[in-house]
Amino acid sequence: MNNIVVGSLESSDCLMTLSPHESRKITIESIVYDAYYEAIHQAITTLLDEHNLHQVHVLCQDKGALEYTIKARLKTAILRYKEVRS
Amino acid sequence: MQPIYHSLEALFNDLPLKDGLNISFHHHLRNGDATQNLILSYLRKQQLNDLNLYPSAIFPVHTELLTLLKEGRVKNITTNYINGPVAEFLASNPLPGQLKMQTHGGRARAIIKGETTIDIAFIAAPIVDAQGNAAGYDGPSACGSLGYAIEDSQYAKKTVLITDHRVEKLPQYEIKSKDVDAILCVDSLGNREGIVSGTTAITKDPVGLKIANNAARLIDELKLVKPGMNFQSGAGGISLKVTDHLREMLRARNVKAGFFSGGITQSHVEMLNEGLVERLYDVQCFDLAAIQSLKTNPSHIAISASDYANPDNQNRVIKNLDLVILGATEIDLNFNVNVTTDSYNTIIGGSGGHSDTATDSFVSLIVTPLFKARTPIIKKRVNTITTRGKNIDILVTERGIAINPLRLDLLDRLKESHLPIYPIEALLEKAYAYTGIPQEYDLRDQPLGVVEDRDGQIIDTLYTKKRR
To answer: Are residues B165 and B308 both part of a single domain?
Structure first.
């Protein structure tokens, strides 16, 4: 199955890549890593929990997206991911 | 008459080459400069060590400096601005000596007072006459004003001009023959496109427009737009938009400003030609229009760094500024401003004339978005102090304005204002509402150097960057 890719690498946006994985794995690359790693990780975990998604690798390449952008990108990615898998 | 050389070998046969040399360069050729690389590559081939460098600024084009650093041949660097690979290298490799970041005015002051001693000043000179006088407004590598090189030429033990264009006689010049010890002729001083970037574009970004609009309304309410007002703005997109608003206000009210100073752009030149300002005091040309105007318009005057901003110079131009518009990478609750490092402790620039003009101007006004790529610009404490908070008066963002509480006079003038004026703490809360509260972090590793204010006072320490 192909990866699901949502978003962009423009400033203030993020690129979310979802791929199948035996367990939940979250990789965060961010220009604001030192200030917002925890917040980004928390946002991703919460949304994955809400969608009951556990066997997935989320790669978040973040260029300083605000939290609602991160959530919107990830939610879109999750819905597409589920659509392709159903 | 100075000797004229056509090769580096011949030149350096007559110059005192030794370890521990103090040498200086200017940055008027910006990212098009080929002369610093030319000289430094020669010194490297001569295996010189413990060099002390005093370039007025360092740009990405300065790759030979990077090579010298990697080989450990540089002991100290004293400069006003660093951008690019040299900054990135220094972030993980401290110097054997130290990095000292000065201001434009402070650099001139230190040279004149003898705190900085320069053995050899290498001065890229776009046009040189038969007497050995030099200027920057003409020739194939024209860059405009040579303001930042004047004190170097006057106080260095040896002054070497590097030129690619010689003429019989110059009608006006900035560097005087009597200060010149040698002339080196080369094919080209550098890359034309890098010398004049020509991309000082007025912002079109809606956030930038909102900030500029807020700033213009505030300037108006403070009654700063008046006959003879003296003004300076940077060449950033938002600053240029504020200048644009000022132009409209001067026009509409039929008011003529006194002078504009600092880095000069096409906008400033157009306003001079339109009769909206009496004089331009030019320490650095940012585009071709500025260079052309400097060459032809007697009211467009090239000035030295000392006449521009040296705090010991009682006739310095910026002492009479009414308003300066400046940027900020960070500003803290005490109004300290950082334009030296980013919020993650990488060097991204330096004061230039930031602290000089903020300190001298009646009003210093910072224009910046409330946050950039999630990072709030307002901090509890800036990563590096470039300009002390007591010298910063106003912060204008797209979502509100903060006035330094020390400026009771300005607060008084704005008592009846309908502008969105808040305490700076409230603006920080507004930023957090969008960005979230950042986690605590400290990316300082080993001491790298110091920030020296214009008067010689050390106001902060620079550190290498801690790696995860």
So the answer is: no
Residue A79 identity: L
Asked if the Cβ–Cβ distance from B441 to A35 is below 8 Å, we say: yes
Chain B nearest C-alpha distance from A63 (Å): 7
Check whether B234 has a pLDDT greater than 90: no
Contact residues, B window 358-397, toward A, CB-based 8 Å cutoff: 372-375
Which segments of B29-155 are extended strands (E)? 51-55, 74-79, 99-101, 120-124, 127-129, 134-135
Kindly state whether residues B135 and B237 are assigned to the same domain: no
**Closest C-alpha among B266, B241, B359, B353 to residue B304:** B353
Whether B60 and B185 map to the same domain: the answer is yes
Task: With respect to residue B460, please indicate whether it lies within any of the assigned structural domains.
Answer: no
**Mean pLDDT of all residues belonging to chain B:** 96
The pLDDT value recorded for residue A22 is 96
8 Å CB contact of A64 and B443: no
| Cβ–Cβ below 8 Å for A35 and B438 | yes
- Which residues in chain A show pLDDT less than 50? none
Q: For residue A66, which residues of chain B lie inside 8 Å, CB to CB?
A: 374, 434-435
CATH number of the domain within which A9 lies: 3.30.230.10
Q: B231, B260 in Cβ contact below 8 A?
A: yes
Residue pair B325/B367 in contact by the 8 Å Cβ criterion: yes
**Tens digits of residue pLDDT in B31-61:** 999 999 999 999 999 999 999 999 999 999 9
| B199 confidence band (pLDDT: 50, 70, 90) | low
Q: Is the CB of B439 less than 8 angstroms away from the CB of A37? A: yes
Taking an 8 Å cut-off on Cβ atoms, the answer to whether B373 and A63 are in contact is yes
**B269 falls within a domain:** yes
Local structure of B74: helix, strand or coil: strand
Q: Do A35 and B468 touch (CB under 8 A)?
A: no
B346-395 pLDDT per residue, tens: 999 999 999 999 999 999 999 999 999 999 999 999 999 999 999 999 99
Tokens of A9: 């690498």
Residue range of the domain that includes B272: 206-441
Residue B463 is assigned to a structural domain of this protein: no
Task: Out of B343, B434, B443, name the one closest to residue A66 (CB).
Answer: B434
All residues at 6 or more sequence positions from A28 whose CB lies less than 8 Å from its CB, including other chains: A37, A40, A41, A44, A60, A62
Q: What is the ipTM metric for this complex?
A: 0.94
Substitution target from B207, B348, B374, B430 for chain A, most A beta carbons within 10 A? B374
* Total domain count, chain B: 2
